[in-house]
Amino acid sequence: MAKYHWQSKSMKTSGVEDMVLLSQIKESAIVENLKKRYMDDQIFTYIGPVLISVNPFKAMPYFTDREVEMYQGCAAYENPPHIYALTDAMFRNMVIDKEPQCVIISGESGAGKTVAAKFIMGYITKVSGGGEAVQRVKDVILESNPLLEAFGNAKTVRNNNSSRFGKYVEMQFSEGGTPDGGKISQFLLEKSRIVTQNANERNFHIFYQLCAGASSQEKEALGVTEPDYYYYLNQSGTYTVDDINDTEEYKATRHAMNVVGLTADEQSSVLSMIAGILHLGNITFAEQGNYAKPADSEFLAFPSYLLGLDQGALETKLISRVMETKWAGKSESVQVTLNVEQATQARDALSKALYSRLFDFLVASVNQAMENARVKLTIGVLDIYGFEIFKRNGFEQFCINFVNEKLQQIFIELTLK
Description:
Number of strands: 14
Strand content: 15-25%
Structural class: alpha+beta
Shape: elongated
Largest sheet: 4 strands, mixed
Helix content: 40-55%
Strand order of the largest sheet: 5-14-8-9
Order of helices and strands: EEHEEHHEHHEEEEHHHHHHEEHHEEHEH
């Protein structure tokens, strides 16, 4: 029977809060305890120093300023299990012991890893002090989330807002615990999603945000229309997500661009790149004498304009490649004409390379806005995208599944053995 926690009259406990205290440490007992707590809306449970979080797929009432005050400066077991307790302990250990701290967040796709990372960063920004300059760093750290989510998250079969890249966020502090910088490292962006998606999935959010939220002037300048017009968006037949408003998300993305310091020209270039990639995907090829030629040259004009390329040069690069040969100390360049399949692959490779470099630019812009060369203390948050098996699996997903398996093995070794 559920009872109320001794420290907080409004929060009840169910089952065992720390599963090292279970009478039997076995799978059935762990699952039953997690289920019991989950049914009473208690989504956090400890296993020693490890915090287990079960995604409730709904908004929970215990992430307010009241909980921030409740967990600040308290020992872990003074209050019910909470991600704020873990974060507060990490923050205090950094300040007191003068040692860097790190938290690893792992789990399958849709487990709530990215949201957990947001709560960790949100709590730290609330309990740490500082003036106007510090607030600027806090704003950049928090606003980097919607910006990178727009360009790095997508709808998958299991998760409407799945991170399709991994990131390591390093928050930098003075010796007194005041945020004075930060750095983001990203890895394994799922570039294959740009050119193909499985059924009932979407490309990265930013493409749909642009189609839904751009002003009429922006749409005219970028040649943007409905998503079903673009080959890179219409393969899955899914254009909207029930709990995502692409128009409002577009406004949030543009606001985040302003906060991290992107100029108007830089923002215009980013949007031109996104629209240019969409138009690139609509270029098709026809066979002409066993070689590929654009089926309609008019489809080359707009992506060339948006990407700042010469139309003839773009066509040449899509239907041919240069091979270099070396013989007797001499090098020779030979231009090889591609067939339709190879030209299509060249088009897709160009699109993926453009998007990857654009994403790198955005991460570099965020880092430039908040990075501090004189690092004293740090808290690192590792958020990798989750274990997932698709009908078609790219190399990035294979790598991340391997990493998740390794992290799971480490978790088992630390807790159950």
